[in-house]
Amino acid sequence: MSRAEVRTSPTRVKAAHRYEVVNAVNRLKIAGARFHFIGAGGVGMSGLAKFLIEKHAIVTGSDQSANAAVSRLVGSGADIRIGHSAGNIGPDTEAVVVSAAVQDDNPELQQAIRQGCPVFKYAQLLGLLMDHFQGIAVSGTHGKSTTSGWLAYGLRQVGVDANFVVGADVCQLGASSGSGDSGFFVAEACEYDRSFLNLRPQIACILNIEADHLDCYRDEGDIVDAFYRFARGTKPDGLIVANGQDANVAKVIERLDGRRRVVTFGFGTKCSVYPRNVRVHRGSYRFDVYQDGRRLGSTSLSVPGRHNILNALAVTAVAVNIGVEPEAILGVLDRFTGVDRRLMLKGCCNGVTVLDDYAHHPTEIRASLKAIREKYHPKRLWCVYQAHQYSRTRFFLDAFAASFREADKAIIPEIYFVRDSDVSRSEVNADILAGRIRAEGTDAEYVGTFDAVCDCLEKELGAGDLVVTMGAGDVWKVADEYLRRLGGNR
């Protein structure tokens, strides 16, 4: 295969479960092709690399440091080097994939250009792969990883062996990606840097739209426009599964003006798919599901939080609209226990419960803390929140300050630095955030280092208390270290 070619073959794929045979004349054939991943250790990049390996591609790559994802790739047969060097690009490399963190002066990227290798961003290659499946792309400001992981897991539980690439490890599926033998491909569609515009799915799911990533979007209207373009990118005979209660999603649907079929979900009966008889039992939700006035059945959830009812409705709407029997998908929703770092129970020791959560937006923080209250009823709820990006903290400072009201105390370590400008770093810091949280009525304290945070937790927490580490950076290390210390003091 020449570097510029995409190999295809006139194959027919046997569909799983009760579906018709899928015609896949142009299905991407990657067996034997050589891909090099620069920045292979990230969740998304490593997941995509693993997916290619399972499709019998040859994968090499590099990363700045070794981590668990790199180790798993090596165990799967990839040749991953630590550190970036032009020599890591072999003469037979056919395509190079780069993460968002890779700079233009990266020596491997420069070598790939000199060799004439096609260079793809992660999302570009994901889009090329999706073109050769019946793609299901899950988008939204919040809930993408949980919903896409839940959908992939649910489909496999009912006999549809879906391919999937998710932006977090799906613990029950053993990885963040997987190769299946059906024609369906479930992928998380991220709006950052408009990367989801590379995807042209058969089904596009829009969970919600809020202001975020204002380092690459002008304002909320600019974000809504990007989601509209994503929806327009759905195949002409495709489907939009959309949150029928979200005001910004409604703007997207209105602009589509009937050019795509739309199925809505939400709590109101004006939505196509909605719940009734919602009740909480020991922190878990149970409810009946209706579609257009017809009862589909009842279900319950193992993942906590009222927001996960909406995610479950989205999963149900997608599954039913690709032909899964309603009672089948509703019967397996409660088996799903979540994805990595989403209200994850890390351990209990000496009467203290330790959770870890990825929430890094004010809406997500509020939803997660409320879900923790409902599920665990702690004596005291402490939140160790590591803000992600100075720019995001600056843009949403007031909203962040008001989002910790369900917590008894917030501990604020240093802000996680990524993609930030010197201007952003000069205008806000973790101590300022802690002060603003206190001004909103929640006890908050700036504690700069992770070691100092663990010292504080060791000194202050006792039986019946719960602490959640929260944020999109490396604050999970606090949960691990604190549990190690608790175990040592047992």
TrEMBL record:
Location in the cell: Cytoplasm
Residues engaged in binding ATP: G140, T141, H142, G143, K144, S145, T146
Biological process according to GO: cell division; cell wall organization; peptidoglycan biosynthetic process; regulation of cell shape
Mur ligase central domain: residues covered: 138-319
Domain Mur ligase C-terminal span(s) in chain numbering: 341-473
Domain of life: Bacteria
A matching Pfam family: Mur_ligase_C
InterPro entries (alphabetical): Mur-like_cat_sf, Mur_ligase_C, Mur_ligase_C_dom_sf, Mur_ligase_cen, Mur_ligase_N, MurCDEF_pg_biosynth, UDP-N-AcMur_Ala_ligase_MurC
Domain Mur ligase N-terminal catalytic: 35-133
GO molecular function: ATP binding; UDP-N-acetylmuramate-L-alanine ligase activity
GO cellular component terms, A-Z: cytoplasm
Annotated pathway: Cell wall biogenesis; peptidoglycan biosynthesis
Family: Belongs to the MurCDEF family.
Function: Cell wall formation.
Protein name: UDP-N-acetylmuramate--L-alanine ligase
Gene source species: Anaerobaca lacustris
